[in-house]
Amino acid sequence: MVMLGWLQGKMAKLKELLQKSENRICADCSAPDPNWASANIGVFICVKCSGVHRSVGTHISKVMSVTLDKWSDDEIDSMVEVGGNSQANAIYEAFLPEGYRKPHPDSAQEERQKFIKSKYELQEFLEPSLRIVSNHPSDAGKQASNSHSASSKSEIGMVEFIGILNVKVIGGTKLAIRDMSSSDPYVVLTLGQQKAQTSVIKGNLNPVWNEELKLSVPQKYGPLKLQ
């Protein structure tokens, strides 16, 4: 009971932070009533911008729902320490060019994608001395050979998302033997060009995952495939 009360107190701090006037609009496009957040950046964002944040990768932005996800102590503390959208934007938009037009709630997804990538991934509006743009050697060495892959990622990033699909994978029973005497099962969900995968459970024909997987839902989408 003490632990439960402690966790509820932490979430209350997060929701209290969300209720501040500066956080009642999306940090990136000013859409009203954002219920998503980037836990590592410390901003509250709308569902459309959350889809773009997901597309740049969790190493740049870890997207979480304020109302649906389970937050860790560190994640909540990080949000509280930043202080909200105004404080974060004062850093990430410190060198925003004069007259630059940020996306608005009805902006095209391509415009939203370009701004969010420039702001957080490329850090173009950050004070130069604070910029930490990661360059992966493996990416540089394979730039030409991966041109098709890069194009595909760009296309995914410009898709307009209308929501988030949460799928809880419980478990499996009496699965087929794929190795000599057992199997190492895992589940893969596919929605359009997105994939999400559970952990691999070694040597178990009756695995239990109890894992929640998330996929962004584009405006045009086909069936959810489970493998």
Automatic annotation (TrEMBL):
Residues 11-140 form the Arf-GAP domain. SUPFAM superfamilies: ArfGap/RecO-like zinc finger, C2 domain (Calcium/lipid-binding domain, CaLB). Residues 145-227 form the C2 domain. It holds the Pfam family ArfGap. Keywords: GTPase activation, Metal-binding, Zinc, Zinc-finger. Transmembrane segments: none annotated. InterPro entries: ARF_GAP_AGD11/12/13, ARFGAP/RecO, ArfGAP_dom, ArfGAP_dom_sf, C2_dom, C2_domain_sf. One of its GO terms (molecular function) is GTPase activator activity. This is ADP-ribosylation factor GTPase-activating protein AGD12. The lineage of its organism: Eukaryota, Viridiplantae, Streptophyta, Embryophyta, Tracheophyta.
